[in-house]
Each structure stands twice: as structure tokens, then as C-alpha cells.
Request: fold
Amino acid sequence: MLKVINGGIETLVEDWPGRLGFLGKGMAPSGAFDNVALGFANLLVGNPPGEAAFEVTGGFFEAEFGLNTAIAVTGTPKAPLLNGKEIPMWESLEVKPGDVIKFSHIGQFGFRWYLAVAGGVDVTPYLGSKSTCIFGSYGGYEGRKLADGDVVRLLKPSRSLREVIGRRVRKELIPPYPREWTLRAIPGPNTSPDYVTAAGMDYLFSHSFKIQHTSNRSAYRLEALPDSFFARPDGGVGGSHPSNIIDHAYAMRGALNICGNTPVLLIADGPTLGGYMCALSVINADLWKVGQGTPNRDFIKFQVATQAEATRARVDQKKLLTENSLT
Amino acid sequence: METNVTAIMPGLTARVVVNEGDKVSKGQEVAVINCMKTEIKVLSEHEGVVKKILVKEWDELQVGDPMVVLDV
Reply:
């Protein structure tokens, strides 16, 4: 088990790909915000890449291990402490009963860590996933973020610890964590000329948007678009603002919702439908970058991609998240 | 000796909950940061007296930015 000493700012149990198949019931997929860091952390300790682990957002999580096991920490490059000493990241190591792991504040780059434990996290799957959906208060550990005093059960390792301890992600495969994140995206469904001006689309795919402080697991809000972005004076029967349209389903995860003048990336716990236009969809293989984008600090830039490129990138990412990427 | 209570997260200052001249104890809430549509408490790591308040509501913050000066 893992005894939580300090729940930190927001520490959640998340797996990947989350709770799929329930968009029609209004249920978001949830799931790890950065599936690449989650995948590598799990592979290091001998788990399947999508097993549930701890997603530590913003930092200050502190917990005591109650068993002998292997752990790995990936994500934002700011090493946590184990019994007061910095531990290597992107590498698996042994922990013993009584060992305490402690995260401080985030580093210069990135926003989330993933702490995986050999065997995984022992929470009951809800509708096929162990992921927490915060706004719905379901899944994960009691449907909420971890708090001081929580005791989380851990599963037994499926492989010998000796086999996995000391494994590392190949250095050249650790993703770079910049301050400006380039997200490949497919334009649509609401674009030029009907909804957006040609100049508006050029702006969307060239401007570097600051991530707003109001961004969270439901939505990443970006700085406002100019009025000249819109091709229509209003939303017609959809509403008074040109971003309004008749309610439709959102392409979760990765749709860029235009809510008034604010572009809003709908991600893990985001809404499944609504009455705002969507100007692009971020390709699946780049969604992890959104999870490492730091609110009120980092920037997002969109780059046009084709469906073929999106498919190829997804296949490449699947190949990346295998034991071949470890040494 | 002076020490700063600093921002633990990027975000906006929601409020400072102490006044200049107040005594604060270790672990006491000093300020609140607004980020991720939630409020994050900033606690004092020291016992001391509030010498100066450096931020006001809606000021932008990055990790490590000084918010309050303490005389410890």
C-alpha cells in the first residue's frame, strides 16, 4: 500500500486510454493527461503502458510505501526525493517499506509527473477504467484527488523485481519539454469560409497562444481570438455570438472549441457536446503535450496535419511505448 | 532576518490573508493562488512577523515569485 502524507496540489489515479465508449452518455474519457510519460513509467516497472499510476500535477505530493516494490517517475524534469535524496527520473528503482517519496514544486519545464508502481494501482475499475473523473466524482480513488491520510492499495508486481529494477528509457527517446508546445491538428469541422475567415485560420495556425491560468483537466483555455477571426456577424439560430452553433457532439479528446472569443482545448475530463463551434482537432499522438503545458506560463502553437500523418504518428507512438525503448 | 513566502504554482493572486504586522506560525496560510479553476493555499514555512505584502489580487505569478516578506 501507499500511505499519502500530503496529497499535493492535484494527485490522481489515471490510466490510459481512459473510459472510452460513453461519450453518448455524456461521460468524458478522463485518462492520463500525458499518456507518453505514463506509458514509459509503466513499462519501466514491468506494467502494460496503460496501467493506472499516480498523476502528480503541480507537485507537493508526499507518500510512504508500505511494501517492497519497484517504482518509476517520469514527466516534468524536477526529480522528487526518496528519503531526502533525489532519485533519477525515467528509470526504475527499488523501494522498501517505510521509504518516503516527496515531490516539490514543478520545474522550469512541464507540469505533470507520473509515478508508476510495479503491478499497478489497486482501485476498482469503473466502466472499464481506473481513471478518475474529477468533475463527475467517479473512478480512481473514491472519485477524487488524493488527500492527506489516504491509504491506496497497490497490486503485486507481475514480474520479478530483479528483472525490472535499474531499467531506463533510452535517453534519445525522452521527449523534450519546451515552453512552446507545437500541436499537430486537423482543421475542422467549423472552418473557413462558413465560420472562420481565411485570415482567421491563418492566425489560428500561426499564433502562439498563451495557456490561461483557468486551464484544468476539463479544458485548456488559450488567449482570446480577435473578432476578425469570425466570418459571421452572429451565430444565427445557434445564438448571438458568432461562435454559437446548434448543439453538436464534440470530438473528444482534442477538439478546439471556440467559446465566445476564447479557444478552448477539450481534453481528458472535457464536455462531450455543446453549442460552440470547433475549428480544429489535435491529433491523438500530440495530446500528451497538452498535459505538460503549464497554465499561465507556457504557449501552444498549432500546425496543420493530415489524417494520414495523424494515423502514422499514432502508430509511431504505439511503437515507442514498448520495452524496445528501454535499456 | 527577512525571508520571502513565495508562489508555489503559476497562476494569479487570489488574495493575501495576512496583514502587515501580523504574527504567523509555521504552516499557517498566508496567501491563496488561483490556478486550474481552483484555489491553492500558500503556507508559511517559517514563524515570523509579516513585514511587507508584495502582491495584490489578480497579480500574475510564476513559481518562486515573492508574495510576502516575513521577519523571522
Observations:
- Chain A has a mean pLDDT of 97.
- Residues 2-174 of chain A form one domain.
